[in-house]
Amino acid sequence: MRYLVKNLVCGFALLVSSTLLLTSCVTPRAIKSDSAVPHSTTSTYETVHTRPTPRQGQYHSVAPGETLWRIAKMYDADIDALKDVNRIQNVRDLKVGRKLYVPNAAPRKHIVSLYPNKKWKNIVIHHSATGVGNSMQFNKAHKKKGWKGVGYHFIIDNGTCGKDDGQIETTPRWINQEDGAHCKAGEMNKTGIGICLVGNFSKERVSRKQLNSLVYLVKTLQGFYHIPDNRVFGHGNVPGAQTECPGKKFPWKKFRRRI
Ligand SMILES: [Zn+2]
């Protein structure tokens, strides 16, 4: 019921959801022959069969900063088929909020672009302090404040406003490698990658899928930009910041154990 209400609040029809592809590729696992067994001459191999990936047509609502290339990559879809079926003449003319039909789509994957850039020295985690939202909505809200669109670099959705629980949205600020507008303290807007989880974690819990996506995203960014664990902050833990963000129910212990 809460889910339904949340989606009604957003004013969007829930898209046909796809499962997140969090698993990495599966390689055949070799089982060594037991050396304690005499005369054993052969090794046995266990082949792990994965279920065939179900492909099906599905809808995708264009988020700020998304290109046709990025959307095709998300669903491992054919970019020409995507263009044809949606009658797109000019790939640059892709309006935010437009619903595209993705034919023969694979389950959606996280696409995190990494750009060589020495400025990123910190990661700052936020909550939206709202029950619902997505990148497009924060983009609108932040523009109303007079900012240059959504102030974070990444949004991790909570299954509201037409997005899946745990979906990672990349914002134009990340694509253009621009300063954030998420944490003034400690010069974090200039040196910190801002990640916002949709939800109010002063009241509710971070979902399992959101936490999985956050761990994946933070580890990916830490690895590429060589950001140590002690430079991964909650907004409120940045020296000089006075906020409860990302909320007192944010699972710090669980999160720290996994990065
Ligand atoms: Zn914050």
Salient structural properties:
259 residues; alpha/beta; Membrane-bound Lytic Murein Transglycosylase D, Chain A; Lysozyme-like; five-stranded mixed beta sheet; two-stranded antiparallel ribbon; 8 helices; globular; disordered N terminus; binds zinc ion
Verbal overview:
32% of the residues are buried. The protein has helices at 2-10, 68-74, 79-85, 135-144, 172-175, 188-191, 208-225, 252-258, and strands at residues 29-31, 44-46, 56-61, 99-105, 122-127, 154-158, 165-170, 192-197, 232-234. It has a 5-stranded mixed beta sheet with strand order 7-6-8-5-9. It starts with a helix and ends with a helix. The protein has 2 domains: 56-105, Membrane-bound Lytic Murein Transglycosylase D, Chain A (Roll), CATH 3.10.350; 122-258, Peptidoglycan recognition protein-like (Lysozyme-like, 3-Layer(aba) Sandwich). It contains 8 helices and 9 strands. The chain is globular. Bound molecules: zinc ion (ZN). Zinc ion (ZN) binds next to loops.
